[in-house]
Amino acid sequence: MNTDKKAAAEIAAQDIDSSEMGVVNNVSTKQSYVLKMDLRLIPILGCTYTILFLDRTNIANARIEGLEEGLNMPSHGYNTALWIFFVPFILIEVPSNLIMGLPRVRPKWFLGVNMLLLGIIATCQGLTRSYGGLLALRFLMGIFEATLPAGAAFLINEYYTRAQMSLRYACFFCFGALGPCISGILAYGIRNMHGIAGLEGFRWIFIIEGLVTIFISFFVFVFVPDFPERTNILSATEREHLLAVLRQDKGTQKLDLKKVNWLKILTDYKIWFPTLMFFCCDMTAASMASFIPTILTELGWTAAYAQAMSVPIWLTAMVFQVTGAFLSCRTGWRFPFILFGVVCAMIGWVIQLVYSEHGNVSAAVRYFGLFCMSGGAFLQMTMSTAWMSNNLRGRASIAAGTAIVLGFGNCANFIATNIFIKAEAPYYPSAFRTGLAITVAGGGFCVTYAGLLWRHNRKLARKRVEDGGEDDQKEYRYQV
Q1: What are the b/e assignments for 382-408, b being 16+ CB within 10 Å?
Q2: In the CATH scheme, what is the code of domain 38-247+270-459?
Q3: Residue 373, CA distances (Å) to 314, 325, 337, 365 in order
Q4: For the chain, which residues make up each domain, given as ranges?
Q5: Residues 6+ apart with CB under 8 A from 205
Q6: Mean pLDDT, 10 residues at a time, over the chain (480 residues)?
Q7: Taking Cα atoms as reference points, which of 386, 191, 375, 383 lies closest to residue 288?
Q8: How many Cα atoms are found within 13 Å in the side-chain-facing hemisphere of 470?
Q9: Pick from 6, 46, 11: nearest CA to 27
Q10: Contact 287, 438 (CB under 8 A)
């Protein structure tokens, strides 16, 4: 223990001396404790994202099990139940991350309490007897669920270097794709509980999956670590070495949220371009999450078969994310992988659009199109979030950036939940045209953003040739 303290003190002293000189020491980047961080951070924080998609998408599974008839919902009722969730979800994310970043707030308590309350409210969806009650519960769910994805992404970002981040974000978003995957499997089994305790099958979907959320919340209280400077999952030596590696990679970041130029942060194009890209790819993800079971039943499959056949679509998303992130780490590039995801999603939308306009596309081809949409959309989500984080500095910027990209980026849900018009089933021409147009726009935002970053790096390179200098918190090369 004394050795740990002595080593930690020596590293800290070296870092203080070097930071006073405006230079970060070239510490060894070999981190024998990365696996330890991965096992403590990614599974439990990933579960918070799984819960988000589980609770968000189970309403789609409940719909084909009789939700609309059971609550006597109006023709537009399902769409309203979807979008009302996102009103508080989008508005709460930024203040939520700022609260979590305060010195006296501990992530495990903040995230744990919110997940526990979310589970209670999600369970109550299965007990409500009215359409109005469902809307009220969905609104409350949006409040407490907003804290989970942004807070988890924020905490993950604080532990890893820029090179390590994309693969960790990929694993994190994989847990998101796992949500509807699990939801489909659970719905397939839970539907057979119809009639137990006098409750319809769709009610048991909400109740069982809400209880799962409550169960997972207790693990959040126990296993979610604190921010790196206060973490207890590493030894003193490992903690100080991690902080030194992070300083070498990102510079000496401002950790407190006092005297922050919020106007500059909230108008930073390095936040808003990735947010626009996330918005465009989330249009695809949100459409799929809310309507895949419905679309599959309209292919002529039974409700039970449709629940099961939704699972491979989400597994494809996971494969695309991890593979893309791994290759991105190896190459050091971000935007080519996002463009590839855009092309994949476009293929999927085009297939659906051809069906809506000509009607002569087989069920197998339409099913293949859903795989293209899933892989392309989730690859973009991973890479755009990592790309944004790579180019930000300071805890305030990271807190705001992760919240904005996962909050305002989810505004696509307002569109996705209102363009699948029941009267247009099963062709949905409005939905497929809108989805394709927004996906193409995402590709345009990606190319524009890459051009801005490339221009900045060229200007900085010319300045360094003339005047010298090194990267710091205010002036540094951007990741392209």
Answers
A1: bbbbbbbbbbbbbbbbbbbbbbbbbbb
A2: 1.20.1250.20
A3: 10, 18, 15, 13
A4: 38-247+270-459
A5: 58, 61, 62, 65, 126, 186, 187, 190, 191
A6: 42 38 51 91 90 77 87 90 89 92 92 95 94 96 91 93 90 83 74 83 89 93 94 92 89 75 92 96 87 77 78 91 93 94 97 88 89 95 94 90 90 84 85 95 97 95 82 80
A7: 375
A8: 10
A9: 11
A10: no
Q: How many residues does the chain have?
A: 480
